[in-house]
Design goal:
single chain; 209 residues; three-stranded antiparallel beta sheet; 6 helices; 33% helix; binds glycinamide ribonucleotide; GART; purine biosynthesis; Formyl_transf_N_sf; phosphoribosylglycinamide formyltransferase activity; transferase
């Protein structure tokens, strides 16, 4: 089974969705969880599931490049096939990202390429969008700019605030992230040399669920 390493910074509900999928028989194991914050609740989720975890605090490093070098060394100690960012709230250096080309996925709470960056739910409401969602994408040096693998769409309701919208999006994240990781683990999903994701031997045009 494919070995998946999950990077987190917080609650880890996406981590939980991946743990639950693995427990239910998906063809991957969560081999380790790494957090940049020692108070991330996701660490408790890992402990409960018997998954090894580690904390690498960015405040112990002066330069971003130094942190990322230590992070790469830590990650490699777990020999993962795939690294997944699940609410990992750090920008990664291009050098680090290049080392994981085609082997690192992220989930972002918007319908990329719309609303890269932070505070997506608030910004979607401010822009009076009628729909919103989440995207799983391969990580490239461009922040939230890597090729999209799969998206989930939700309707924005008139009564929504950022919290209700975030909750509705998060529920869909918990569906599409395990799905994309499963595709990768099954050897069906890969990033082509020209940066286009392929599924089952054909170019993937970001399916929307
Ligand atoms: C998720 O909504 C994820 O998409 C988002 O943080 C949340 C983490 O929740 N990620 C980003 O905003 C990345 N820039 P979780 O810790 O419960 O999985």
């Amino acid at each position: 089974r494919a070995r998946i390493l999950v990077l987190i910074s917080g609650g880890g509900s996406n981590l939980q969705a991946l743990i639950d999928a693995a427990t239910a028989g998906a063809p991957f194991v969560i081999s380790a969880v790494v957090s940049n914050r020692s108070d991330a609740f996701g660490l408790e989720r890992a402990r409960r599931a018997g998954i090894p975890s580690a904390v690498l605090d960015h405040r112990d490093y002066g330069e971003r490049a130094d942190y990322d070098a230590a992070l790469a060394t830590l990650i490699e100690s777990f020999t993962p096939d795939l690294v997944t960012l699940a609410g990992f709230m750090r920008i990664l250096t291009p050098h680090f990202v290049a080392g994981y080309s085609g082997r690192m996925l992220n989930i972002h709470p918007s319908l990329l390429p719309k609303f890269r960056g932070l505070q997506t739910h608030r910004r979607v409401l401010e822009a009076r969008e009628s729909e919103h969602g989440a995207s799983v994408h391969f990580v490239t040096a461009e922040l939230d700019g890597g090729p999209v693998v799969v998206q989930a769409r939700v309707a924005v309701r008139p009564e929504d605030d950022a919290e209700t919208l975030a909750a509705r999006v998060l529920a869909r994240e918990h569906v599409i992230y395990p799905l994309a990781v499963r595709w990768f683990a099954e050897g069906r999903l890969r990033l082509n040399a020209d940066g286009v994701p392929w599924l089952d031997g054909a170019p993937l045009h970001a399916p929307v669920l």
